């Protein structure tokens, strides 16, 4: 057998594994379950699946996995004629932690328009963790806590999400009516969508904007309308989505410049403990303060620095120092410090 054929079979098996595990679980959970019922539930959870595929999967479970599955004509369904567990390979501690983190984080989507989808995935993960004795069923939610705050959009973005994801996969341009945050105007744009991503609970997609003639980021909750087209596009060969995303300090990916900030000894201890951006460098001073240098977008850095109040001082560039001075004067006037 050629290496290519073997590799293709392994890939096909990996794709099939979640489905056949779910089929096994359905048979295990029910005294008798019909072929039609299995097909209906699998189609709902995994997408349209034929009866023929389900029959083939059950044969795989019996012949390849040696599962004790039989069919009862009298009861019209499949059942396990002896106690059995699905033969998953033993998980490493890191893999167990990854599954627990995933199951825990899915709870954060309750109350959003993605709740139903994530709830089904959460239930599958928890079923897996229980069935493999990774952790007792009554301890899954209490085993791990992640302080993750999900920002819930005020508008339903599920339909937009599905359409954009489809356009990305099929490499088709889309037409959007977009409410720009900076100009406070709604414009119609043709966009070639490249990638969907989440930042602090808000969904964005990046793509080539034909109106602005450059790659831009668009928040899904600011899209007023979206239309699919039949126009195909080609993603530039030199575009690397991960390089693109990490180029921002937080979310803005506009022009970047060299910025130097001084943090006092109190705040410096915390700043030194984290890698805020891959371009950062830190110079430690004798009194415990630090000079923090970064290549970033000034608007993002301005908001970030002002959040630390008197503990942070922008040293360079001078133009950014002046912008922050103006903000401080405005604040002083608002709070009655300056008249």
From TrEMBL:
<dbReference type="Pfam" id="PF25583">
    <property type="entry name" value="WCX"/>
</dbReference>
<dbReference type="InterPro" id="IPR051534">
    <property type="entry name" value="CBASS_pafABC_assoc_protein"/>
</dbReference>
<dbReference type="Pfam" id="PF13280">
    <property type="entry name" value="WYL"/>
</dbReference>
<feature type="domain" description="WYL">
    <location>
        <begin position="161"/>
        <end position="227"/>
    </location>
</feature>
<dbReference type="InterPro" id="IPR036388">
    <property type="entry name" value="WH-like_DNA-bd_sf"/>
</dbReference>
<feature type="domain" description="WCX">
    <location>
        <begin position="256"/>
        <end position="331"/>
    </location>
</feature>
<dbReference type="InterPro" id="IPR026881">
    <property type="entry name" value="WYL_dom"/>
</dbReference>
<dbReference type="InterPro" id="IPR057727">
    <property type="entry name" value="WCX_dom"/>
</dbReference>
<protein>
    <submittedName>
        <fullName>Uncharacterized protein</fullName>
    </submittedName>
</protein>
């Amino acid at each position: 057998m050629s290496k290519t054929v073997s590799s293709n079979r392994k890939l096909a098996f990996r794709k099939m594994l979640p489905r056949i595990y779910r089929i096994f679980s359905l048979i295990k959970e029910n005294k008798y379950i019909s072929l039609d019922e299995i097909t209906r539930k699998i189609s709902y959870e995994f997408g349209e699946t034929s009866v023929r595929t389900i029959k083939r999967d059950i044969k795989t479970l019996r012949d390849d996995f040696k599962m004790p599955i039989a069919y009862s004509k009298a009861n019209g369904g499949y059942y396990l004629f002896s106690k059995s567990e699905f033969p998953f390979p033993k998980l490493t501690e890191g893999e167990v932690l990854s599954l627990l983190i995933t199951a825990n984080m899915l709870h954060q989507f309750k109350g959003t328009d993605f709740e139903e989808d994530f709830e089904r995935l959460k239930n599958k993960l928890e079923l897996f963790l229980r069935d493999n004795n990774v952790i007792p069923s009554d301890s899954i939610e209490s085993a791990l806590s992640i302080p993750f705050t999900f920002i819930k959009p005020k508008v339903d973005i599920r339909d937009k999400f599905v359409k954009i994801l489809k356009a990305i996969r099929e490499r088709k341009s889309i037409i959007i009516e977009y409410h720009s945050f900076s100009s406070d105007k709604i414009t119609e744009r043709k966009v070639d969508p490249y990638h969907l991503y989440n930042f602090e609970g808000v969904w964005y997609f990046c793509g080539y904007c034909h109106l602005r003639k450059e790659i831009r980021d668009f928040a899904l909750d600011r899209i007023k309308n979206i239309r699919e087209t039949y126009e195909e596009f080609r993603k530039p060969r030199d575009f690397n989505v991960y390089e693109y995303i990490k180029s921002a300090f937080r979310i803005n990916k506009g022009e970047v410049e060299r910025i130097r900030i001084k943090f006092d000894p109190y705040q410096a201890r915390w700043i030194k403990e984290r890698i805020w951006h891959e371009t950062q460098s830190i110079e430690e001073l004798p009194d415990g303060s630090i000079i923090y240098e970064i290549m970033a977008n000034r608007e993002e850095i301005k908001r970030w620095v002002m959040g630390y109040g008197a503990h942070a001082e922008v040293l360079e560039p001078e133009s950014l120092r002046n912008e922050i001075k103006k903000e401080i004067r405005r604040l002083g006037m608002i709070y009655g410090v300056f008249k």
